[in-house]
Fold these 2 entries.
Entry 1:
Amino acid sequence: MAALIRCEDLWKIYRLGDVEVQALRGLNLSIASGEFVAIMGSSGSGKSTLMNILGCLDQPTRGRYWLNDVDAAGLRADQLADIRNRQIGFVFQNFNLIPRTSALENAQLPLFYRGVSLREQRALATAALCRVGLQGREGHYPTQLSGGQQQRVAIARALVTEPSLLLADEPTGNLDTESSREIMAILDQLNKEQGITIILVTHETDIAAYAEREIVIKDGRVLTDRHTRLAVPLSRPEV
Amino acid sequence: MPAFLLFTVLTAIRILSRNRLRAGLTMLGIVIGVGAVIAMVSIGEGAKAAVAKRVATMGTNVIMVLPGSMTTSGVRGGQGGAVTLTISDGMELKKRIPMLSEVGWGKRDTMQIINGNKNWSGLVNGISPSYLTIRDWSFSSGGAFTQQDVDTADRVALVGQTVVENLFDVGEEPVGAVIRIKNVPFRVIGVLSPKGQSSQGSDQDDIIFIPFSTAERKVFGTQFLGSVGALFASTERLEDLTPAAAQIRDVIRTRHRLQPDQEDDFTIRTQVDIGKVQESTSETLTVMLFAIASVSLLVGGIGIMNILLVSVTERTREIGVRMAVGAKRRHIVMQFLIEAVTLSVVGGCLGILVGILGARVTTAIAGWPTIISAETVMAAFVFSIAVGLFFGLYPANKASRLNPIDALRYE
């Protein structure tokens, strides 16, 4: 399979006053299209920095990042926005839905910025909500939905543009076990049935176990990178 | 793009209606500012129209020539102090300047007038018949005297409405009655239609017209036969007024044998000049009004900017999310600009309503004439858009420059 993501010698250096923080130190990584990858690591390991760069929210200080054979390092802010809009879907730990805005309109948001007609926005967003099992809740506001449901709206928002890459940053961090299982089942299904590449950041091993490949980051470099082989984890979390 | 705009406007309205009290208070500055402007402009325009109406009662395209001051042994007399203008000056003007449609003259004095047991001190004008045409006087009953009356110095009089009210009983017919001016009996042959106040504020209807020759010989008495109090002329077209005034000056200077270094011994005033003097008063008012308006709109605009800055801070995470899903800088700028403009336009529209209401109330209570023109309303509307754009620009720009990562993490 073609490499969807290719990182070569990625460096990210922050300057906090006089102190220089090297968040990434020459990281190399390659992820093929259709993979389900879990990225693990302690806080301060550089995994958040890596996710920001992979998500085109940030630029590396040095090194190369190819997404779909496009070198994203050195693109302008508007070009990065375009890539985020067309190729990447985000799922955050705290859902990040727009408050006092219906589930449907939250799911429409990326299409809105793409300039799709209002009717098409509605149709695609309704379909995306349906895919995550939220049919009938289009008009609900985030406050009227449970945490699991809110996260499903966020997944629908990420899916609505048919992205090639879905970045999930601790997607179950704020959810109970039951909801976590539901969310992971949806992600798993998206990966298996629709071939969407998923990169999952987590520090819970049972959540990471859903992935087929586990990458551990430490001190800004890849520490271990192993295929867990089994598509279905041995120990599903108990209810 | 239109779909994007429409949706952004709808979003802005919804976001603003989430916090109605705040939006309302923010708008208040604009409402008061625009309301004040609309009310003040309508009062100003009303006053201007009233002045224009008064200037129009002078007649149509009128030029006045007044005698100048006379200097005797270095002592300068006041204006009109000299007896420098004559009937022959007037006749020469008529002959030499074809642009002038009418030339007339008059001479005035306050005299005691008696009718039966009533008497009244009125302004008596000895005039040429053309004067009535120049000043656009018309009659409510009876009619004017003719050149023949002037030639034979007939004792006939035309009376104004105020004079009628003071000299005649209600229901008494003035036309045909005989009144006495300085003990000389005159037959009233016409009652003039009322004109109201002049542009200087005097009552134009407190007046009596008699033939010039009669006034000169039988009522006023005069040192120099043929000297006039003022010459009057009119032109067919408004644009001829100023060139005609210049020609009049040349003709009279020549007749008076004035050397180039000598000052005019007369003064020329056209209706345009008089209108300008009146307008300059209302222009002062307008300047003051704009000062007030700009201050209140400035305050209103700063209010909008302040509330938007608060909003940008409150909604930092939302901005981050929008950027993460692909909003470009211009999308974020547009969103906040449209919110600012929505605030200012809604405020502006409310202000227009308040202003119209204020003008109505002013007319009802103070009785001042007010005029609300479409131009004023349009200008207020456009201006409120401009205020929104101007004061929204800084917060919008600030929002769009947020770093998506920091914005997403903002608590």
Entry 2:
Amino acid sequence: MLKVDSINVYYGGIHALKGVSLEVREGEIVTLIGANGAGKSTTLRTISGLIKPKNGQIEFEGKNITGVPAHHIVSLGISQVPEGRRVFANMSVLENLELGAYLRQDAKGVEADMAQVFERFPRLAERKSQLAGTLSGGEQQMLAMGRALMSRPRLLLLDEPSMGLAPLLVKEIFAIIKDINAGGTTILLVEQNANMALSIADTAYVLETGRITLSGTAKELSQSEAIRKAYLGG
Amino acid sequence: MEFTHQLIQQLINGVSLGSIYALIALGYTMVYGIIRLINFAHGDIYMLGAYVGFFATTTFKMPFLPALIMAMAVAAVVGIVIERAAYRPLRQAPKIAVLITAIGVSLLLEYGGMILVTPQPRTFPAVFPAHTYNIGGIIVNNQQIVILAVSIALMVLLTYIVHRTKTGKAMRAVSFDTDAARLMGIDVDRIISITFAIGSGLAAAAGVLVGIYYNSIDPLMGIMPGLKAFVAAVLGGIGIIPGAMLGGIILGVIEALVSGFISSTFRDAAAFAILIVILLFRPSGLLGKNVREKV
């Protein structure tokens, strides 16, 4: 479904991604794990079109999408939940969700998807007209996910959904991610919480200072000695 | 009694002057909100609007309302062109480069305008017969009523656009977090163009209204009101739409009170004294929250 082929990304003079390649197959949950600053977010931002790679190619459903601007990427069926949620704090929950459906013309479909989001996240339904900035961290994460789902993506990119959340909430969020995937949405998940990520993923990649150093099935990786030492706390 | 009369009289004058500042300040604040640029050419768009209104009513003999709409439309197009040609190529450049460009655009409009329409001030025609009403000693003329009515109508329309329409929501989203807005599928460049169009249209409306009120227009007429509208925008909290409206009205009222009770020569000093006081004690403006800019 998604093929990233040896992309190089620079931030000014810094070589942030050094020939990163990865593949996401339809229906899978793929996780990209690695330490802070390894380039995980940069990878997602490049796929979403917020950053242009210097070279290399990104292919989605057979189409070359390298260098396509971000607002077109959304219409192709890729949606991102950015790191730190990035909800529109000065707007209501409802307005945030409406913005998620910004490109859609099918009012009926949007309404149905909105109802579905509220079903999946009942806490958002209770806070429809509340400003997003007044929500708790967990609720904001749910809103950011609901907002991304409003564009009806076939591929959902999640950037550190567990960041700053209590362990119980992290569990809840990961259960929801599994559920979204079960509903037919392919997922590319970036996480520092390698334990949780490997527990729900099918395939995993390890990113270290801009390079993919390891990849395999999530099961293989969670049993690998090197990974256990570096990311899973022994 | 004499004092109360005078006070009410100056308040009325101040509110009509203030609504002009508010209309110009809105463009400053909207553009700042979306690309963090103080568009110093904005005051000259107001001048441009006054001239389009002038030629529409004289050369083309248009009545008031069509002339107003025409001025707003022309200014909107010019605003879009300026953004495309002068600011968009500098999107990634340091802010100071864009600011200097804005000053350059301002000078181009002022002195280019002089070549086109001559530096000679022109007398704005009376588009409708002047009436003054004397209500218990307080003088109100129909021009003031028209200024207030048009300004209120435009501000209500703007508030509706910003809060109720899809484009308005996109504008707020871009202003809050540009990258997050892109991830929603919002074409940020298009939203910036629309913002320049709306801001320029409002400034042009102010230009036409001032032409009617003061009867005289010239190519440099935008400098002072442009600076004062900038003060108004900072006073209300730059980037905040209701702040620009409030800041404009307050500034107009203060100016009217100063000219009425002290001396009209202190009028401009009062406006800039406000800027200094605000920058010292409440840099984020009356309606602004004290938040540090994100890096």
